[in-house]
């Protein structure tokens, strides 16, 4: 096997392999909510995958799946004029509805979403929301007396998709590889920041249209790009939506360490492929092939 084959195998190992279970649960939740809030039996209407799964950058073993459920405008009028915390009341109504379908499943909330936690540790975070005039979404925040917040994930999904097409499918692969690195090195970065920085890097990378044979260089140069971010920068603007993504911690030093490992791996691959693969496994974990 050559380096291109190694990275192709690695990327295959990162592919989400429980899409059937995800789809079945998504449809069951959607159907229940449609029945109670839209008088409909559809298992697809009014719901959207968002987050990393919606952007198609999640990796095998991910646990938190984000989904929007869009409600009628008349429901917003009712809950926004609620006596007391209407946001909390809406979340409670969504929770009670889902419990009708999953009575023996842990269904709770964190003040902004309803969390459905299944026995296999997969968590669905259901965000009830209302469409805005600019195609964003209002969602409830029940904390501190309640308020309505805005999110706009659809342009983020579109931006990833558009750039991925321009980059020969390399953006989504890079995003997934970076998540494997994040998990292996316990890097304090959220998924949207990973996807945003990967997008911004590939936009100007000279080999963005090449294939797996260039993934060692892509890894090396992306780690270099991450290591050169300003450690004083507290937020970035998300691709597509422009929403603020706040720093969770310093990631630049770990990126620098892995840049150095990547340089070593590239230098050693021709004469010492086993040693080089060990370096890549140090970076990305056991999903990278050992031989």
SSE order and pairing:
Blueprint: H1 3-13, H2 19-37, E1 47-50, H3 51-55, E2 64-70, H4 73-80, H5 86-101, E3 106-109, E4 114-117, E5 123-131, E6 137-141, E7 147-151, H6 153-166, H7 170-185, H8 191-204, H9 215-227, E8 235-237, E9 244-246, H10 252-268, H11 273-284
Parallel strand pairs: 2-5
Antiparallel strand pairs: 1-2, 3-4, 4-5, 5-6, 6-7, 8-9
Helix pairs in contact: 2-5, 7-8, 9-10, 10-11
Description:
There is one protein chain. By secondary structure, the protein is of the alpha+beta class. It folds into two domains: 133 residues, Beta Polymerase, domain 2 (2-Layer Sandwich), CATH 3.30.460; 130 residues, no CATH class. The protein is built from eleven helices and nine strands. The strands form two sheets. Strands 1, 2, 3, 4, 5, 6 and 7 form a seven-stranded mixed sheet that branches. A two-stranded antiparallel sheet has the order 8-9. A hairpin with a 4-residue loop joins β3 and β4. α7 crosses α8 and α9 packs antiparallel against α10. It is elongated. It starts with a helix and ends in a 7-residue tail after the last helix.
The overall average pLDDT, rounded, is 96
CATH topology of the largest domain: Beta Polymerase, domain 2
* Known CATH architecture of the largest domain: 2-Layer Sandwich
The count of domains is: 2
The N- to C-terminal Cα distance equals 8 Å
- Count the beta strands: 9
CATH class of the largest domain, named Alpha Beta
Strand percentage:
15-25%
| Percent in helix | 40-55%
């Amino acid at each position: 096997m050559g380096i291109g084959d190694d990275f192709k195998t690695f990327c295959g190992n990162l592919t989400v392999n429980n899409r059937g279970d995800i789809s079945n649960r998504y449809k069951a939740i959607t159907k229940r909510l449609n029945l109670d809030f839209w008088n409909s039996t559809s298992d697809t209407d009014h719901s959207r995958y968002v987050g990393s799964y919606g952007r198609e950058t999640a990796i095998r073993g991910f646990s938190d799946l984000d989904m929007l459920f869009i409600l009628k405008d008349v429901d917003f009028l009712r809950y926004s004029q609620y006596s007391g915390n209407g946001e909390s009341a809406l979340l409670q109504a969504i929770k009670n509805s889902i419990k009708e379908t999953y009575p023996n499943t842990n269904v709770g909330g964190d003040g902004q979403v309803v969390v459905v936690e299944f026995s296999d540790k997969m968590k669905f975070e259901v965000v009830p929301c209302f469409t805005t005039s600019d195609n964003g979404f209002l969602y409830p925040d029940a904390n501190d007396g309640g308020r309505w917040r805005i999110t706009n994930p659809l342009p983020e999904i579109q931006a990833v998709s558009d750039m991925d097409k321009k980059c020969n499918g390399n953006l989504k692969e890079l995003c997934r590889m970076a998540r494997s690195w994040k998990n292996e090195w316990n890097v304090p970065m959220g998924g949207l920041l990973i996807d945003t920085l990967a997008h911004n890097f590939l936009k100007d990378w000279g080999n963005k249209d090449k294939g797996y044979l260039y993934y060692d260089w892509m890894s090396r140069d992306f780690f270099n790009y991450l290591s050169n971010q300003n450690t004083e920068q507290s937020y970035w603007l998300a691709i597509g939506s422009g929403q603020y993504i706040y720093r969770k911690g310093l990631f630049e030093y770990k990126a620098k360490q892995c840049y150095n490992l990547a340089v070593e791996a590239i230098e050693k691959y021709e004469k010492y492929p086993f040693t080089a693969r060990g370096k890549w496994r140090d970076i990305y974990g056991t999903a990278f092939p050992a031989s």
